[in-house]
Amino acid sequence: MLLDGGSPKVPPEELRALVRGAGFEVGSARADFGIVVGGDGRFSRYGRTEDVPLLFVGVRSKGITGSRAQLARTTYDELPEALARIRAGKYSTEEHRRLGVLKNGKSIGEVFTDVYLQRGNESACIRYRVKATGQGVAISDAAIGDGVVITTRAGATGYYSYVDRIRGESMDPGAFADVGRDEVGVCHITPTYTEREGTGAHPLRYKLPWGCRVELSLTRSADARLYGTTDSKAGIPVSLRDTISVVPGKRVTRVISF
Predict the structure, then answer these.
(1) In sequence order, what DSSP letters do the residues of 195-219 get, joined into one string?
(2) Alpha-carbon torsion (217, 222, 227, 231), positive or negative
(3) Backbone dihedral region for residue 245 (phi beyond 0: left; psi -120 to 50: alpha; all else: beta)
(4) Could you give the CA distance from residue 62 to residue 215 in angstroms, rounded to a whole number?
(5) How many angstroms separate the CA atoms of 202 and 220, rounded?
(6) 81-90 long-range CB contacts below 8 Å, 24 or more apart?
(7) Residue 173 predicted with pLDDT over 80
(8) pLDDT tens digits, residue range 185-215?
(9) How many CB atoms lie within 10 A of CB 17?
(10) Confidence label for 245 from pLDDT (cuts 50, 70 and 90)
């Protein structure tokens, strides 16, 4: 099975020839596994939509602002060897929990890595609230900032890790804050202010037990968008009347590993 599209990092025909040369058929009907070549954005996209085991193949960008392919399990130059190991049965499959996302109680999809509420082009900082309940947790944060990201373990090397990347005098693309398999990460995006109701705390980033329900809502009208559940670069508009709920998903993403 070949998963590609958009602006591929390698020529599709070259990739098809490589996969066929390893003794596999290329197609989508009754696929045994999928091959995703690209960076973390593409891995995240297919990780939230596909149910077959996926092999994430990194093509690291030469540009300083390009993808680091942190989720890759092999690289394109090592793909022939990886395919040989799959053919020989010398691999394992990791199961990653997904998060389900609802808008006003209606499902709008699941995410493999993260989902985030962020200010749109027509807005400065947004004012919003984060409520988390369940698993012995009952918290409410009020915040002013660029937005907030909710992440799975697989998404810990993404937006959630920006705090680690800007510490000190250099940005280390390999540094990230770990989120456990049984945890969900919450991180305010460059906030100017946060306050936890009933406490003197001003949280920036924290972890919640898996199973919590996280609700996001605006407290002042603004151009705000939800990203992570759609391919649209414009995201999903969120108004003052909307409530975004993030809960445990119903499906898992299976990732081939060696």
Answers:
(1) EETTSS---SEEEEETT-EEEEEES
(2) positive
(3) beta
(4) 38
(5) 20
(6) 82/55, 82/57, 82/258, 83/18, 83/19, 83/22, 83/23, 83/24, 84/22, 85/258, 86/33, 86/55, 86/256, 87/22, 87/23, 87/24, 90/258
(7) no
(8) 999 999 999 999 999 999 999 999 999 999 9
(9) 12
(10) very high
The residues that bridge with 3 in the sheet, in sequence order, are 36
Q: What are the extents of the domains in the chain? A: 2-90, 98-250
| Per-residue model confidence as pLDDT tens digits over 111-164 | 999 999 999 988 889 999 999 999 999 999 999 999 999 999 999 989 999 988
Res 175: pLDDT? 67
Q: What is the pLDDT of residue 2?
A: 53
In three-state secondary structure terms, 111 is strand
Show the tokens assigned to 4. Answer: 């590609």
Q: 122: which 2 tokens?
A: 């027509």
Superfamily name and number for 2-90? Probable inorganic polyphosphate/atp-NAD kinase; domain 1 (3.40.50.10330)
Q: Please calculate the CA angle 9-72-170 and round it to the nearest 5 degrees.
A: 90
Pick the CATH number of 98-250 from 2.60.200.30, 3.40.190.10, 2.40.128.110, 3.40.190.290: 2.60.200.30
Written as one string, the DSSP assignment of 52-101 is S-EEEEE---SSTTS---TT-SEEGGGHHHHHHHHHTT--EEEEEEEEEE
The alpha carbon torsion through 119, 232, 179, 193 (nearest 10 deg) reads 0
CA–CA separation, 113 and 41 (whole Å): 10
